[in-house]
Amino acid sequence: MTKPPDWEGTLEDLDRRRQHAWAMGGPERLDKHRGKGKLDARARIERLLDPGTFREFGTLVGGEVAADALIVGSGSINGSPVMLGAEDFTTLAGSIGPGGNSKRYRIAELALRDKIPLVMLLEGAGFRPGGGHYGRSPTDLLAQAQCSGRVPTVAAVLGPSAGHGALVAPVCDFRIMSKQGAIFTAGPPVVKESTGEEISKEDLGGPVTALPSGVIHNVADDDEAVIADIRRYLSYFPPSAWSYPSALPADEDSEPRATPELLGIVSRDNRRVYDMRAVLDVVFDRPDWFEVQPQYGKAIICALAHLGGHPVAIVANQPNVLAGSIDADAADKAAHFIMVADSFHLPLIFFADNPGMLPGSRSERSGVLRAGARMFAAQTAATTIKLHVTMRKAYGFGSMVMSLLGFDHQSATFAYPGATMGAMSAAALGRATHAGEDVTAKLRDAELQASYRSAEHMGFDELIDPRETRDALLASLRRALSSRQAAAEPVSRTVILP
After folding, report:
1. Which family does it belong to (predicted)?
2. Which of 60, 65, 231, 438 has its CA 20 to 30 A from that of 103?
3. In sequence order, what E strands does 50-190 have?
């Protein structure tokens, strides 16, 4: 394209400045970065977004500091618009200068204003020393907190992330890390200076620490795998809380079908464990559901899936971990997951099979009652569609946090015949009351009849054959979706607690 003579010098100057920003930290630093098996910030953006959709802004922020070490803009993921930012570690270690801070604030502001998701790709050293972050100026975390519960937010930790930059992750709905990622309040040099402790960045904030602590939800092998999981995660969500999730086109996977396989998976003997994941493989449209936080609070499975093509959120007890007993970590995980799902109108489906909250001194010291109360508050406050199945057992508070409670606004509640329930198991009640053998036998018989007694008093909408599980849930979901006759609105909640 030819340039008129009076524009030539001006446009050449613009091009020179852009080229400087696009060059990031320069060839040497880029080669070193890529030599570690990582994508650079711009390559990450290109891989994350649909081809040809990235529109950058703030390119010239930072002047001689290329893009001020932060690349931001808009694009599309799975055909839907998003806002995103990517820290550029090759430029001043991805540190945050005043210009970068303004860019971070701006993309969060626009994500909320335009009602689209916000994605942050993190690899940076936090606030830049001497960066001029003083006085009255906005912080990106303020704008990001205002996004909470209104637009989906995702953070990926793709290298070391420290200080202020690291705080972006726990404020987001979904946090994922590559195996080369590490996240911490302050890096190893600061730790050594402050406390004398010598520790590697991997031990301080890598997956071995960040997953058990709950700071990070999921881990993937490398940058490409993390980016693929982000695209997959967002595919279940609407653009914002002002819209409902979109269903997939109908295909054979979304049709009604019997689930006879469950008779071989779910043992009639309450004491025999099984893997709830096998149940989810059978019940949902295809066995490619997406689990959130699989390495934390393993006694509960939290996952995203499709039922009849409709995106749903699953909260399921895991009988092969602690016999399904709900510990503090599992309850904390489920509480956060429920709040996220409810905020974006994903129907919640509960599969209960637990002997209650985990008892014992260690569990009590971990705050199991506080965590259980948080989960209970989250699910009772949920305004989205709720469906419930009790599979074999659900006792005490462990049943209530799984939405087995009358007048809990469920659209449908089901149980398998022979499911046992109550304040506690017959065996535990017998021991607690020092009952004799004859009384214990009567308690056990009453326990075995509990599902029928409950059904006789409308404790459930229906007792179902396990082979009817998918069809019962699908029919109930399709009926419940007819309630959405008005435009979606955000849930009345200030913020999703991290």
Report:
1. Belongs to the AccD/PCCB family.
2. 231
3. 55-57, 70-77, 80-87, 118-124, 153-162, 174-178, 182-184
0.85 surpassed by pTM: yes
Beta strands in 335-385 (DSSP E): 348-354
10-residue mean pLDDT series, the chain (498 residues): 83 96 96 96 98 97 96 97 98 94 96 98 91 69 93 98 94 97 93 93 96 97 98 98 95 93 93 95 94 98 97 98 96 97 98 94 94 94 96 90 90 94 53 55 60 87 97 98 94 73
What tokens does 125 get?
A: 């050293």
What angle separates helix 140-147 from helix 163-171, to the nearest 10 degrees? 10
Where helices occur in 160-261 by DSSP H, the ranges are 163-171, 188-195, 201-205, 207-213, 223-234
Closest C-alpha to 338, from 401, 289, 411: 401
DSSP state letter for 100: H
Tokens representing 59? 């390119």
Distance (Å, whole) CA 298 – CA 331: 10
Task: Tell me the two tokens of residue 246.
Answer: 């979109």
Helix and strand counts by DSSP (H, E) for the chain: 20, 16
Query: What are the CA-CA distances from residue 446 to residues 66, 168, 311, 424, 461 (Å)?
Result: 72, 52, 39, 12, 21
Instruction: Give domain 7-236's CATH superfamily.
Output: 2-enoyl-CoA Hydratase; Chain A, domain 1 (3.90.226.10)
Question: Is the Cβ–Cβ distance between 245 and 344 less than 8 Å?
Answer: yes
Q: What is the CATH number of domain 252-482?
A: 3.90.226.10
